[in-house]
Amino acid sequence: MNISSVRLLLQGYQMAGVDVQHPLLGETTCGSLLLQLQKIWDEVGESDVERDKMLLQLEQECLNVYKRKVEQAAKSRAHLLQALADAKLELSTLLASLGEKSFIGIPVKTSGSIKEQLAAIAPALEHLLKQKEERVKKFANVLTQIQKIRGEISGTNEQTGSFTVDESDLSVKKLDEFHDHLQELEKEKSERLNKVLEFVNIIHDICAVLGIDFYATVTEVHPSLNDTTDTQSKSISNDTLARLAKTVLSLKEAKKQRLQKLQDLAAELNKLWNLMDTSEEERSLFDHVTCKISSSVDEVNVPGALALDLIEQAEVEVERLDELKGSRMKEIALKKQGELEEIFARAHIEIDTQSAREKILGLIDSGHVEPSDLVADMDAQIIKAKEEALSRKDILDKVEKWMSACEEESWLEDYNRDDNRYSGSRGAHLNLKRAEKARILVSKIPGLVDTLVAKTRTWEEEHGFTFAYDGVPLLAMLDEYAVLRHDREEEKRRMRDQKKFHEQLNTEQEAMFGSKPSPARPLSSTKKVVGPGSRGLNRRLSLNQNGGGGKSVNRDVKRDVPRPVAPLNYVAISKEDPGLFTP
């Protein structure tokens, strides 16, 4: 717009009759203002030059205003286009980040003004932003748990929240991968926790058996293992598991060593008790020790069973018994010797008890023999003596039967000489029954003697020495019995012949003189008894006319037959063999 055009514009306004006096009553326009300005100039008397100058200035200012408005509009359009491009880019980025190929709310075709396009994209963009925010929270939650479990496993105790979520990939697939990894970590955590609890339970049981403070032990491994503390979760780190395993091995070794020590003490207690013949009542005080003498490590589970005070108590008892052993050693050894002598006495083996006891006391006083070895050796001799007594039992039983039969034979002889045996006196019928049994028993004596001889000879061949009965060779006793029995039979025959002669003589006198003479007295009224007790053969075989008592021994028989050899023991030790117990 130039000056001439402005002038033409003013003229047109004047011809149109535009009211310039009251411009505020109507709409204020550029034309009304120009008319008002023309009127002012007319009143003032401005020259055309000034007027043109002022109009040119006014024209320039209007142009500048239009230029600014156009520039502002262009900038606004550029901003909107950039916003639209940014929105589309963000939309595609969100779709890619969330792993979505498309979204229902996004317009397929972009048409219309820029603002319309922005308005069409905005809802979808807002929805995807919310979805992204929720997805980021899920990722953060999963990653927080993963980081926490990793920290528990590694033992670093990392602070949660010190990580950033990678927003370039927020897809469901990636989230599922993190969830799978979290499940693996949770499974590993559960397994580690079970392993920790298993170790803790083992430690608890062993500590109970050993009498050790359980809480102090596990706290030394890791404070979180102590249930009395305020720790929320137990440590499952590699270091904690390694230290728990090491602690378990250490406690098991300690349990094994204590059990071995207790078993050694129990064996020593039994040895000392047996040595000193301790009463069962006193032994029962340490049943809790001796009951584990053959137990394995896994079988000992009673709380306090391997406590140090219990082991120390057993040690004190062993020391006490060991000190007491020296003072009671003579009493114990003599008691064992008495048992040995009793076995020999029951087996009818003659020994020198006095020499044996002196030998034992001399060995103890000399200190050349360990008391436990001495008693153990005497126990061995007792066992050997019992074995020999057992080997003699069959023969001794038959000897007793033989002696009993000889006693009955002696009684039967007395009974047969009694002229009033058939009278009606009190008890006569009992004697009659006994006489019948005695005759049966006496009839078996020859077979019994033959059996005894055979068995005795067999025994002597097996053992290599003479079978003696209270120091007298049994075969010599049987031989002498056979001789005496033969003499007795001869005497009986002579008695019968003599009786027959007297009877015949009486018959002839009665025929010659007509009267019966008085019965003649036997030539000898002396009774000759046949049995193992005759001639004083053995002080234990007393079968004289009154049935007992004889103490004499035929030493001539004992001189002709070798003495029986007793088993090697302290009783039969020769005084000329001091080196037998060389320490």
Automatic annotation (TrEMBL):
Annotated compartments: Cytoplasm, Cytoskeleton; Nucleus
Keywords assigned by UniProt, alphabetized: Cytoplasm, Cytoskeleton, Microtubule, Nucleus, Phosphoprotein
Origin superkingdom: Eukaryota
Annotated Gene Ontology cellular component terms: cytoplasm; microtubule; nucleus; spindle
Compositionally biased tracts (Basic and acidic residues): 553-562
UniProt name for this protein: 65-kDa microtubule-associated protein 1
One GO BP annotation of this record: microtubule cytoskeleton organization
Pfam families given in the database record: MAP65_ASE1
Family: Belongs to the MAP65/ASE1 family.
